[in-house]
Automatic annotation (TrEMBL):
Gene3D superfamilies: 1.20.1280.50. This is F-box domain-containing protein. It comes from Citrus clementina. Signal peptide: none annotated. The lineage of its organism: Eukaryota, Viridiplantae, Streptophyta, Embryophyta, Tracheophyta. Residues 18-55 form the F-box domain. PANTHER family: F-BOX DOMAIN-CONTAINING PROTEIN (PTHR33736:SF12), F-BOX PROTEIN-RELATED (PTHR33736).
Length: 376
């Protein structure tokens, strides 16, 4: 009888080890699905080490010891993955129409526009941490972690009333002396060879490869609130090639964030910009090489105006608890809807200004005719 019990216990132990070995090889979505299949998988899937492996594979920045300590302090890797794998979706964009926020309402006082001071005093730029990872064709090419928000010292400083912007590479360049902040892409990473910029301008092969291959994750963590969210769209939403110079390529990622009770427009766009510059082409006798020259975040309202630092902190705080989805098509639909509404707003504003211009011209002509009539 004792031998039989020992055999059962041994088999159970062996099964647990085998189950763990199976689960540790899965990616996040598959692991979450497997946890729902049986009690054994459900129990084992609660193991933090499994989710640490998943996060490490998806976001190489989480391999850092300081980031591991941060994640442990806000609830662990399982919670971190649940917060950051789904992307932000804002379904309220369609509820706002241009005539609701074309002009800032008169009842908005200056204090209201710049936010609730009591609420703002609970937010500090040092509470935010940016965890950024870039992949090209599933290969990690850049991992950065930024503690706090640069140049945000002093409550009444310029940061709070000037346009909000975080530039990861500029910050790292100021801190690093060994060139660690430099990020490059070359033919060995999967880039197509470029023999001349003139040919690239015509066929756009490099531009297409960049748009199809680049992926960005920009996770913002609030240490005090113990919350995190991924503000990136994962794949590019748009961009511009050969701008501002012939050798520059700008790729844009982002998300639509709620700004209810913070700004009159109620929603803003979080713009994450990535700029690559061609530093070598095949005609120079070396393989095609691109250098990452910009990696930045900024917030813009519906009219394209930059949001100041004070309101940006309030918006980032709200973004950490807004709706998210694992359905990527739903995320893209939300971003495209915002762009559509924004375009309609700009068109309506141009039509309104055009009508005003015509009215001014007609008024001027009428005044001139009246003046001439009075003289004669």
């Amino acid at each position: 009888m004792a031998t039989s019990v020992a055999s059962v216990e041994s088999t159970a132990s062996l099964s647990t080890d085998l189950f763990y070995d199976i689960l540790r090889r899965l990616d996040g979505p598959t692991l979450a699905t497997a946890a729902c299949t049986c009690a054994a998988f459900c129990s084992i899937s609660r193991e933090e080490r499994l989710w640490e492996n998943v996060c490490s594979s998806m976001w190489p920045s989480t391999n850092r010891e300081d980031v591991k300590s941060l994640i442990a302090s806000i609830g662990g890797f399982r919670k971190f993955y649940a917060d950051c794998f789904p992307l932000i979706v804002n379904k309220e964009v369609s509820e706002y129409h241009w005539n609701k926020y074309l002009e800032y309402p008169e009842e908005w006082t200056e204090a209201e526009y710049y936010g609730d001071m009591d609420e703002f005093e609970t937010i500090s730029p040092s509470d935010f941490v940016s965890i950024v990872d870039i992949r090209y064709k599933d290969k990690a090419i850049c991992s950065k972690v930024l503690w706090g928000i640069p140049n945000a010292n002093g409550f009444n400083g310029w940061f709070y009333n000037c346009p909000f912007r975080i530039d990861i590479l500029t910050t790292y360049a100021a801190r690093d002396d060994d060139g660690e902040g430099e990020v490059t892409l070359s033919v060995s990473d999967g880039l197509p060879p470029i023999f001349s910029m003139e040919k690239e301008r015509k066929d756009g092969k490099l531009w297409k490869e960049l748009r199809d291959g680049l992926r960005l994750s920009w996770i913002v963590v609030n240490k005090k609130m113990k919350q995190a969210a991924n503000l990136a769209s994962w794949s590019p939403l748009g961009g511009q090639r050969h701008w501002p110079t012939d050798k520059d390529f700008v790729i844009r990622f982002g998300s639509v964030l709620p700004a209810k009770d913070i700004l009159p427009c109620q929603v803003v766009e979080c713009i994450l910009s990535m700029k690559f510059r061609v530093v070598h082409t095949e005609e120079e006798g070396v393989q095609t090489t691109l250098k990452l020259t910009e990696l930045s975040m900024q917030l813009e309202d519906m009219e394209g105006a930059h949001v100041n630092g004070r309101n940006s902190l309030l918006i980032l705080k709200e973004a950490l608890s807004c709706h998210r989805s694992k359905n990527y098509s739903e995320v893209l639909e939300s971003c495209h809807l915002y762009s559509k509404v924004q375009s309609e707003l700009k068109e309506e504003k141009m039509r309104s200004e055009s009508r005003l211009d015509r009215l001014c011209i007609l008024s001027g002509i009428a005044a001139f005719i009246t003046f001439c009539y009075c003289i004669l």
